[in-house]
Give the backbone structure.
Amino acid sequence: MHEPETTTVPTVGVTIDGVPVTVPVGTTIYDAARSAGIDIPVLCHNERYDPVGVCRMCVVDTGGRVFAAACVRPCDDGMSVQTSTPELERSRSVLTELLLSDQPPRESDPKHTTTADNKLLELADRYGVARETTDLPVGAGRGTDVSNPVIAVDHDSCILCDRCVRACDDIQGNDVIGRSGKGYSTRIAFDFNDPMGSSSCVTCGECVQACPTGALTNKAIRSIPIRPREQLEAVESVCPYCGVGCALTYWVDRERGAISFAEGRPQPGSQSRLCVKGRYGWDYSASPQRLTKPLIRVDSSYPKGPLSADVRGEGTGKRATKDTRPGKDRGRKPGGLVDYDEVMPHFREATWDEALDLVARRLKEIHAAGGPGAIAGFGSAKCSNEEAYLFQKLIRAGFGTNNVDHCTRLCHASSVAALFEGVGSGAVSTTYGDVANADVAIITGSNPTANHPVASSFFKQARRRGTTIIYVDPRASTVSEHADIFVQLKPGTDVAFYNSVMCEIIRLGLTDPQFIAERTSNYDALAATVADYPPERGEQITGVPADTIRAVARAWGEAGSAVIYWGMGISQHTTGTDNARCLIALCSITGQVGRPGTGLHPLRGQNNVQGASDAGLIPMFYPDYQGVTKESAREVFERAWGTSLDPNRGLTVTEIIHSILEGGVRGMYMLGENPFLSDPNTNKVRKALSALEFLVVQDIFLTETAEFADVILPATSYLEKDGTYTNTDRRVQLGRKVLDPPGEAKADWWIVQEIARRVGLDWNYGSPSAVFDEMVPLMPSYTNLSHANLGSSGKLYPNPDPEHLDGTVVMFDERFNTDDGLAHLVPAQWLPPKELPDSEYPLVLNTGRLLEHWHTGSMTRRSFALDAIAPVAEIYMHPKDAADRGLVHGAMARARSRRGEIQLQVRISHREQQGNVFIPFHFREAAANLLTIDEVDPFGKIPEFKFCAVQVEAVGTTA
């Protein structure tokens, strides 16, 4: 771990209210006073934002001609400051009264009547002034804006402190809020004075968290009132969505058994930031569609198969009745959810004992008849580390097979394969926040503003401070607008592009020869390979101008520190492992690993995909990536678990689907996974699920996959249980129970343990912490960690002293985790995708996420805010591609491939390259994976979600 260099910082001495204070040069009077425990009132200032001195509430007397704003005035050596003279207090009192005269009455103030923490009213009470007693003219009538589903704007409450502007610009980097008007009519504005709900606002809520008055406030969700904090219970937890793992506080109304609102809280990674999903997307747990009792399929619903028209592939997506909700009158099924009325009659309620006994008996029978290979399990990256550990332990120790996998197979399996091969570790080598120390950052194959929005805010901040951002992607997502160099390459040409960049770096002599000689192997073979990809050839393959390739090579090669962040645009290809090999090589030949601001960071997709992988929820590794084929590793776990273990690698997600169709796997346990929508080639998955002899599904909602189940077990959401989660930075954090589970729903770890007991395992864990205590001795990377020392902000691993240290930020400073300590450079030749466009299917389909939604939509489409903002399945098309097909914005189109077809709405988008279309995969009524191919990367076994050939045409066109 890199220790910060110690340098002597010049200081100045000041006296504040008679108290001598020594502070570093450049420290403001406000910060110096705080360090001495002296309070100076503020309105416009917050230490999270750059000071601007707008409100003048913090003025102090420095002996000068005029009072100085403490938040912007730096301390001078020998300065004497008074912070609360009668004159100063009179100035603050008058200013408070002036501001208060335009405010709504206290009894109708939007903030006072909710969280009751209006900072201006607090000052009014301090100075004994009131709107009702002022002699000043009382103003009103600047208007309100309630167009956003979860944020209310009251312009009469605005004091023009600009905290919302700085929150939006300086923290989130979204640049949506400014000012409009002149004089008294001046007010905050969204974009070009648009209503907030129709502006480019992404509803992150940072402005609400920043606002000191009632100008920006949260609206109540699901009719749960927003109340003062002292009337609510604060529960610190972690966001359940992407791998950034933002720390938040839920304010819980115990009287109603519900969450009132959520806020970001301090943590070294997320630093109090949230996105729309974290701040407003938690109410799915209160959905009336939650599963609350165990369910068993009725005899009359055999032979088994899909139960609803939509899952059978017969649905039209049309509604029987018109939906009059705002934004929902587009002729599609509201919410796009499983029709409970259609599916539930095929199941009957059961007791927990009956359901668990049946699960254990049937799985044991299949195991006895077909052997270990007849059983397989899909775990979940949404569950905790403890639950992932127990699930893989059950499959391995209870059924003697390594046929256990989870969604990492569908997101970063190829990245992990390349990282293990290249550097000996599948985890990131630095954090997303370390971009602040980088001269250059490449963001490639990722749309972090949608997929990892809080991480993207750090990328945008870094760029403003001088980091050169190079964005490489086929789509011109919003990240491209913040890039210094935008590389819009053709889909599936990443290997050619990075080989060309490395070829040019070597030609220019911008490699790090010492690093190559001392810390890498196989450089000569790599150099020979990339020599065949000069920028001119790179341009022919990728469509990127040779001069742009040269500019990227020079920027990267000349950087003192440089880091790469990548997403599933790199990994979700049949060449995904080769793509990641190129990124490893690019960092290695330039020595850009092992120092602050350098390294390799695959941005992890789900909240606990890193932790689930760490905990062994993959078929080729025990916990902490100890190979199942390695005898020494196997012996460790055989001793710990008291049983013999399978010495062979298990089947991956996609291989299990193939095995079912070939009569291999016959019984499955699925925990929190929905392969019907998440796996490629949905028609093939439908056949496989129908062919299973026995399937148990454990989930919080009735999913499409659950329609094929014999038994459905109602689980708890992350809000209803304790456990640890590991984010993309390697930060292990505690998720704490916020609410009681509905009905008879049980925590996943409890259910897994009960099944384990019934199949003959002697388990007796009393809590998730007991499971964690068993895990840690078996996982060297987690050494020294415990529930007790994770604290409120978690800890990075590896961590030599979690009682006193946050953990290791930068890895590989001296050696890599490979057997020889070297980075293994693996040359890669560019290969075209498996399915190319032709005259029948001339367009290239790319799939991915939207900011507001999450994977198969089972959570986010049951969230009021998220569904209200993005309710409709859309296909994003280049204007010319749409015009050539007679399609206009908002029209219904049919997208078809060699595997199936879907109908969805057209969205004209200048972010797409001509010849390419983009479809989010969250919408079951337009399931993108009906179209995708199931070809996989030969190393990572990951499907090619990012490239297949399609045609798009107007609905009614003859195919």
